[in-house]
Design a protein that fits this description.
Elements: H1 4-10, H2 21-31, H3 58-74, E1 79-86, E2 101-103, H4 106-114, E3 122-129, H5 136-146, E4 157-159, E5 169-176
Antiparallel strand pairs: 1-3, 2-4, 3-5
Helix pairs in contact: 2-3, 2-5
Length: 180
């Protein structure tokens, strides 16, 4: 039997609108194996309802994945994205490959960049990417693992695979001057 996740892998989805909630549940389930027994109690035949679960109930799990899907659907297309880099000089930024991990919130990129600002050589890159070039599976996983805590540490990540980095447009670079 092919799971929804395996079906997803076979038919890579480039549009967040194409995901059904069960797709997102499967993406989460595949990622949580080391942290939880399952995503919610009584989710499979081997589950007796005892254990450590990401969500208390099936309903709460589906409310959460609906929230995630709605969040990503609500982003403009193209999505304005941000990335902070620490380099010795602006000329050291490789415009041909700007990286996979971006943020859809400028403050998240700036906060993340300030973590490694030992020499005050950080630059913030802003750009745009069309939604169809976002790796939604990796973006969903990154959001679950590194965001949604309502703290300044949230990364609010958008993942752009190597094969799609060429579609990053309207690139702007600015020096960041953090106050010490």
């Amino acid at each position: 039997m092919i799971t929804l996740y395996e079906n997803y892998v076979q038919t890579i989805k480039n549009d967040i609108n194409d995901f059904i909630l069960d797709d997102i549940i499967e993406i989460i389930r595949d990622d949580i194996n080391f942290n939880y027994d399952d995503i919610y109690p009584n989710n499979n035949d081997d589950d007796d309802g005892d254990g450590d679960f990401m969500f208390e109930t099936k309903e709460k799990a589906y409310e959460y994945v609906e929230y995630i899907k709605d969040l990503f659907i609500s982003l403009n297309d193209p999505i304005e994205i941000y990335r902070s880099l620490n380099v010795d000089d602006i000329k050291d930024i490789d415009l041909e490959y700007l990286g996979n991990c971006w943020s859809f919130e400028k403050h998240s990129a700036l906060n993340f960049g300030s973590r490694n600002n030992n020499n005050n050589n950080n630059y913030n890159i802003s750009a745009e990417i069309e939604k169809k070039y976002v790796d939604w599976k990796q973006t969903i996983l990154a959001y679950i693992n590194f965001s949604d805590t309502l703290s300044d540490d949230d990364e609010n990540e958008i993942y752009i695979g190597d094969e799609n980095s060429q579609y990053i447009k309207n690139i702007k670079i600015e020096k960041i001057n953090y106050k010490k």
